[in-house]
Amino acid sequence: MIDLTHLALLGLAGYRGTQLAVHDTILDPARDRVIAWHERRLTSAVRSAVVTLISCVYCMGWWVSGALLATYLLVTGTFDQAPLLIHGVEWLAVAGAAVLLNRLDDALSQVHG
């Protein structure tokens, strides 16, 4: 199981990766293309799901956190040192830490305008 220091670092990385994917202007062109693709067929459930994924910090945060955790576990060679269920709990913890930071960011932006 990962220690608290690595959990905190992965949570911070998950927060930043989620912000990058959902909000940062560097990815505006890619998001705009996906939204335009969706607008060509608004009744498509798959297209709607993709737009929801790329615009929701909770949805995107879950997958970004999972990708970061999997990368960390594979690169450090620790993936096979714990049962898959433990890695699922770690995924929840990393995603939870990232979403707490997103919630804090949202709250602070409302306070400071």
Helix content: over 70%
Decide which structural class fits the backbone.
mainly alpha
- The tally of beta strands, per DSSP, is 0
Mean pLDDT score, rounded?
95
Radius of gyration: 16 Å
Biggest pleated-sheet summary: none
| SSE order, one letter for each helix or strand | HHHHH
Q: Determine the strand fraction and express it as a percent band.
A: under 5%
Poorly predicted runs of 5 or more residues: none
Distance between the termini: 40 Å
What can you tell me about this protein's structure?
Helix content is 80%, strand content 0%. It has helices at 4-22, 28-39, 45-55, 57-75, 84-112. The radius of gyration is 16 Å and the shape is globular. The mean pLDDT is 95.
Short synopsis of the structure:
The chain has 113 residues and is mostly helical. The chain is 80% helix and 0% strand.
Write the layout of secondary structure elements.
Layout: H1 4-22, H2 28-39, H3 45-55, H4 57-75, H5 84-112
Helix pairs in contact: 1-4, 1-5, 2-3, 3-4, 4-5
Attribute tags:
113 residues; mainly alpha; 5 helices; globular
